[in-house]
């Protein structure tokens, strides 16, 4: 979410009554990676909208959460779902040697899906343990899986870049 131009992460199970002090600014998460020598990696499965826009307005009924691929209404875990579709947030500025992989690109909200995990989490779990596949390829495959699962309504996006002289793997090849 963005509050006063600060992009922050908010736990999806946090009570709405908790203060904004419970939010974790993404800049702090990025700063925590500064000690990494080769790769600074942040993956965020966040709906990207601001649940505090109208905190005084609460949904009168539980929001419908379904898979867009199943033809249902797609929802997010936003606290202000009664205000209409989420607009998403701005892009993240990531320096060299840093990758920030968001569940949804700027201007989009990440969908919850129809199970316990979001389409992004499902795709990451299916792809991350694949041996011998370079990290950027994994991210592109996850993007394709999420685009298919959400009928094109959600596109994961990578901000930042890596140098071309070294490959990175979650699981090395055999």
Q: Could you say which structural class the secondary elements and strand pairing correspond to?
A: alpha+beta
Largest sheet: 3 strands, antiparallel
Number of domains: 1
Number of strands: 6
Describe the structure.
By secondary structure, the protein is of the alpha+beta class. It has one domain: Rossmann fold (3-Layer(aba) Sandwich), CATH 3.40.50.1460. Helices cover 18% and strands 13% of the residues. The protein contains three helices and six strands, in the order βββαββααβ. A hairpin with a 2-residue loop joins β1 and β2. α2 packs antiparallel against α3. The longest helix is centred in the C-terminal third of the chain and has 15 residues. It starts with a strand and ends in a 13-residue tail after the last strand.
């Amino acid at each position: 979410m963005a509050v006063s131009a600060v992009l922050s992460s908010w736990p999806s199970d946090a009570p709405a009554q908790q203060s904004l002090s419970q939010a974790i600014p993404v800049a702090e998460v990025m700063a925590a990676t500064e000690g990494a020598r080769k790769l600074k990696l942040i993956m965020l499965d966040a709906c990207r909208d601001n649940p505090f826009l109208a905190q005084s307005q609460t949904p009168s009924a539980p929001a419908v959460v379904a898979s867009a691929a199943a033809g249902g209404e797609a929802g997010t875990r936003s606290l202000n779902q009664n205000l209409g579709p989420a607009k998403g947030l701005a892009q993240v500025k990531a320096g060299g040697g840093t990758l920030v992989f968001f569940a949804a690109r700027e201007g989009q909200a990440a969908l919850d899906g129809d199970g316990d995990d979001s389409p992004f989490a499902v795709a990451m779990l299916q792809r991350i343990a694949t041996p011998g596949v370079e990290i950027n390829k994994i991210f592109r495959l996850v993007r394709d899986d999420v685009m298919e699962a959400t009928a094109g309504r959600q596109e994961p996006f990578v901000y930042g870049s890596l140098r071309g002289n070294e490959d990175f793997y979650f699981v090395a090849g055999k």
